[in-house]
Amino acid sequence: MVIDIGVCPSTPTDLGSFVQIARKLGFTGIATHNIEGEPDQLLKNEFTILKRSDVFGRGLKSIRKQVDNVRKHSMIVSVKLASVETANWAAEDQRVDLLTIDHSQAYRLRDSTARLAATSDTALEIRIEPLLHLVGLNRSKVIKVYRESIRTAIDSEMQVILSSGALHPLHMRSAMAIRYLGELLGMGLKYAGNAINQAPLDLVERNRRRFSSDYVAEGVEILQRGTKK
Amino acid sequence: MKKTRRRYLSFFLHSDDSKLDDKQIGTAIWKNLLSLYGEVSAADSKLYLVEFDEKSGAGILQCTASSLDDVITSAVLIGSIGKSLVSFEPKKTSGTIKGLKR
After folding, report:
1. Which of A29, A161, B11, B51 is the most exposed place for a label (fewest CB within 10 A)?
2. ipTM of the complex as predicted
């Protein structure tokens, strides 16, 4: 099972063509912000669509409020790296799954943020879409930001996850292709393979457990319910 | 002169335009390789498009063994050729064309 956890169709009607290409490329699921309904939906052809929420804002108060609102309705919650204050809060908060790098901003991951994220299992999300349409100096600048952030994350034992960030179905790439891009960004081929194959799956499985009715808190689960007398 | 080891890569090109020909694809990969890794690496890669089926989008690339990863990375990073969006999907690598088709 391979899931692309960062697909961004502009309208829900575009989702069909994304699913078609994703299946051709060997994915068995995608996560997108542009769907209605349940956070975890299984299509007829054994293809999974997961609901994700991308949270961004200027202040910590605004981000905290958004996370409160979306957590129960989304399989994946991501916060864009913007300021140190919000990044550190998001890294420490166990409701946040991903810290996503915004390539248009000069912000990069700090050591302290990465260490906090490593303790609360928050992963760094790298989207490859900007690399597809930029060339020359602009692409070089994005590669620099990505490579530095990935180096910081790996040194602090923070998990890195690679996603397509596709705005168009043809922006999607196969898992094998993304693995090679991971190598370009400074990961070993094995680590890059894990960042596209296993790490997204682990994240989804963890959140599926959290969504189950027997889950109470991290490490606490209902194993057997008592009978009413 | 020591003979360089060659590698073959089978790939599939997803596109919204079926009129793309082998020359356009070869040039696009070469240009991206040049932009990403520089002139010396592009020259050393000995990149050559062996075959490409315009209808199905399947093709085979040839390059040196040492530059295989760079060639795949460069090809994967191509977002569009001309005005049509493309998605390059590497399938299999081998030392011989026969090995690819096995």
Report:
1. B51
2. 0.92
